[in-house]
Amino acid sequence: MNIAGTKTQTRRLTRPSVKEGGNYILRTGNKPTDSSITVTSVYTQMLGDMSPEEAIAEGFSTLDEFRETWVGIYGSWSLEQIVYVVEFRLEGVHRNV
Q: d(Cα 84, Cα 10) in Å, to the nearest integer?
């Protein structure tokens, strides 16, 4: 989870319903937490262009670890696969949960 502020990016196959500059309640699965994030950037990227530093920003120790988790969730890893990247920052406790 992002509570420590170490995860600052996430990748998705489908276009996320967030906007740059938007503030959102941080969720674990479908359950809201007491923290919020602000989206700083939304863009597309090919999986093959992902760097080791971006894997760390995703909350993983290595790109290989991210790749293994991705395959476990989505079933495959294609260097040409276009994904949506959401970059964000942790804002802290959200009082309205």
A: 8
